Each structure stands twice: as structure tokens, then as C-alpha cells.
Amino acid sequence: MSDFQLDYAVPAADLSEYITLFYYFRADVPVFEDSERADHAQLRVRLSPGSAEYRFPDDSIQSPAEFHVIGPTSGPMQVRVIGPVEVFGMGVTAAGWAAMIGNEASSVLNRTIDASVLFGSARLKATATALRAAPDNAARFAIGEDLVRELVREGDEPACQFARQVDGWLAASPSPEMEDLVTATGLSRRQVERKCNAMYGAPPKLLARKYRALRAAVAMVADSEDVDDIIARGFYDQSHLIREVKQFTGLTPRQIMAEPGVLQRLTMRQRTALDGQVSPLISGT
Fold first, then answer.
1. Cα distance between residue 91 and residue 130, in whole Å
2. Distances (CA, A) of 35 to 39, 47, 55, 131, 248
3. Of 34, 182, 58, which Cα lies nearest the Cα of 111?
4. Cα–Cα distance, 215 to 197 (Å, whole number)
5. Which of 24, 25, 30, 197 shows the smallest number of beta carbons within 10 Å?
């Protein structure tokens, strides 16, 4: 594992509504190939010169720009980068998507877009230059926080309130019921679905399945929970558990416990260590 490094940083309190975590990833290999699980949207800058390629769940392939946004993902994403690899990034919450990007998130589900189109190239080039010159991760994370504060400018309180309600709904139960979210928000079922598509990139039912499967995967690895106990968290049977976990992680439960791959192994280990510091939707998935 000495060839690989993944470090996370919890965002400052004023940014916690918008960013899940900041991260820095390094891989000292000629070519890095691995898979990432379904996740929040991401804002990334490739600090190393090598080209990169993402293969999304629908098998579409995209080569991301140096500074790029990855929309929310509904399944595993295959990554191939010419090394050595150095990447700085951050997870973008639903409220962060509304405040910084504003486009319909469902239109970029499982897609990547050039961040300079959204934010302008001059500001991003200056940030990339500063990140490459930064002496350590503390400096990199501070640069990332400054960028987010500039991009957010003014918070969108209605969007933040809706995101809190949805996140609370997702975290409250392994298999949350749609009617509970309708009641919590005071909106109609159709309005809730529309707002979830706009901010999360997917309807509530898909979100519930996604986070149930990711929590199950983490429970197997980090908590060494018994499969029968995990099935009791909202799965019909073992076959259902296997199908759901594989759909959102790309791996069967057996593979996750035995050979999860570099990114999934580092991600689960590092994020679970942050339990109590961040939302359970982050530390538990």
C-alpha cells in the first residue's frame, strides 16, 4: 500500500452543508486502474499530467478535463489514469450542488463535465497552480476551502433545508418509506421526486437503495457484521443483498470482504474512521 495514499479532511463548519469531505489521492504506478462505488457528486482537479478515463455504469466512457465535475453516480465507475497519479477533490452534497452548480443533477447522473464551463477557467487555473505548489495537505485543503467559499457565495437556505430533510430520512432507517419523506417535507410526492432529481440526481427510492447497499458493504468490512444481521436491515434474502450490493459497488459481498480493490478499501477504512465527525451518510457508506 506504500504506492497509494488517500487522505481526507473534514470541511470547516461553514462548508459542511456543501462539501462531504476534501481528499488527496496519490498512486505511484505507471497506470492506475480501479473502480469507485456509487457516491455523491465530485469536484476534482488532476494535478498530475497523465490522461484519465472514466467508464460509467451504462458503459459510456469519458475523458475528464483537468478540473472536472462528476455528477452523482448510481453504480460503480471504472477509473483508468496514466500514472503517476495525483488528484485533489471534494465530495459535493445535494445542497452544495444547488448552491455551486444549480443545473439539474439528473441530467449529469453518471457523467462528467468540464468545471471551467461552470466556474470559468481563470479561477480554476489559479487554484490548480496553487494546489500543485502547495507543500502539504493542510495547505491543499485550505486552498479547497477558499475555492468553495468563492463558488458558493450565498447559501441557498431552502435547498439546505430540503437536503437536511432528505439526508435525515436516508439516515434514519435502512429502508426508509417514501411517505415519511413526504410528511417531513410537507411537499407532495411529485414535488419531492422532482427536487430529489434536481439536487441528488435520482428519485428517493433509488437513493434509499443506494445508501442501504453502501451501508451494507461498509458493515461487512468495517464492522465485520454477520450476513444474516445485514439482511435484516431491509433486504429480502441473501440473493437480494448480493444483487443490490453488486449494483452499487460493482462487487459481491464475498469480493468486498476478500478483495475490495485499492480505492474501495481505502475509502471505507478512511471514512469509517471519521464516524462522529461527519454525517453517517458519509462515514457509514
1. 20
2. 12, 20, 9, 25, 11
3. 58
4. 22
5. 30
